[in-house]
Amino acid sequence: MYNRFIQFVIPRIGQGLIALVLYLNFLALPFLQPLAGQPLLFFGLPLVLLAALVWLARDPLGVGLAAAAQLCGVYAAGDLVTLLAHALDGPVWQVWRLVWQGGLLAWAVTVVLLLWGWRKAVRLCTTCYTVSTKKPLPGGRLRVVQLSDLHPGTGAMNHTRIPELEERVAALHPDVLVLTGDIFDEYTSRQDFEAFCALFGRWDLPGGKWFVPGNHDLFHYWHTPSYTRAELEERFAAAGVTILEDDSRLLSLPDRQGAPVRIIGRRDWLDTKGRRLAPAELQSGGPDGVFTLWLDHEPRELRDAADAGADLILSGHTHGGQIWPAGLVARLFRYNEVNYGRKRITPTCTAVVSGGTGTWGYKLRTAGRTEIVCVDVTQEM
């Protein structure tokens, strides 16, 4: 779990910094310049504007804060260009002053960013990868479809989009369906919870349906969830979804000849504060001749998993950054080993990190993509 400092203090510090940057830039707005001789109005009106934005951004997970953060980011970028243009002076400075308009351009750019981010969030894509292995597979092939980070509720995914999701998954004809965490969260309504559990139950796949919990499914932060752990386990059992928490199983496809596939699912790193079974404990014999599909909500300890025998690691959690610069910060501090997409960990092991089949908190995405992941594993002959 996130500690209180990360969960509550850091967002408030961030809100304070955003407020400071916005206020300093509001002082440069063109309509304020004629009031420069009246300090009460000149300094007071930006405070009123800032107070209105602070009220809109009062929810740490609300779209208002996301909008204010985007405006702050645009202003910060504009401030850097302003410094550079001022240093160059002459025509460059004159043109930039005309374009920037005292910061009015920042508002227009923010509106465009928000509209583009909304469209990017709600547009559901299918991303396909191909991986080869020398290990035997049932019938020489395996198609794995991954759903991750649905977060139904306030984000881009809810029960109204189930027909689209159902159609897209059915069109892929998967052998195995994996749910790599944060399928639900503390904002998920009871209606969404029941509707998605029913959806999972309608899929009948030869290789089964497998779930590893994320940091939101069972362990909550801001709200009391609409379901309990017992209810989740009960609904998933009824839907034929197997929950894996530091567990290993063998699966086979009854309609194909060939060797079985091992599937390993890990407990969530945040839930356990990193104190979970090590990869070597999950597969104590090390690499062997069985193709091993490794599920871990967060893309961590990838090399250890590969050394233990993982051939394909599927993760989520990062959302591909979702709101810039979250992904950049995560990469700079190496919070996640992979932010998005495919990465070869060893010559025999590949990791794939989903951008999420939904979004977290709000229908907004300026980084990554909202996607279903499909991985075709083929056996080298």
Write the layout of secondary structure elements.
Elements: H1 4-26, H2 39-56, H3 63-88, H4 90-100, H5 104-122, E1 124-133, E2 141-147, H6 162-172, E3 176-179, H7 190-202, E4 209-211, H8 229-239, E5 241-243, E6 247-251, E7 261-265, H9 269-272, H10 279-282, E8 292-295, H11 302-308, E9 312-315, H12 326-332, E10 341-346, E11 349-353, E12 370-379
Parallel strand pairs: 1-12, 2-3, 3-4, 4-5, 7-8, 8-9, 9-11
Antiparallel strand pairs: 2-12, 6-7, 10-11
Helix pairs in contact: 1-2, 1-3, 2-3, 3-4, 3-5, 7-8
Class inferred from helices and paired strands: alpha/beta
CATH hierarchy class name of the largest domain: Alpha Beta
Number of helices: 12
Mean pLDDT, to the nearest integer, reads: 90
Instruction: Name the strands of the widest sheet in spatial order.
Output: 1-12-2-3-4-5
Radius of gyration over C-alpha positions, nearest whole angstrom? 24 Å
Major sheet characteristics: 6 strands, mixed
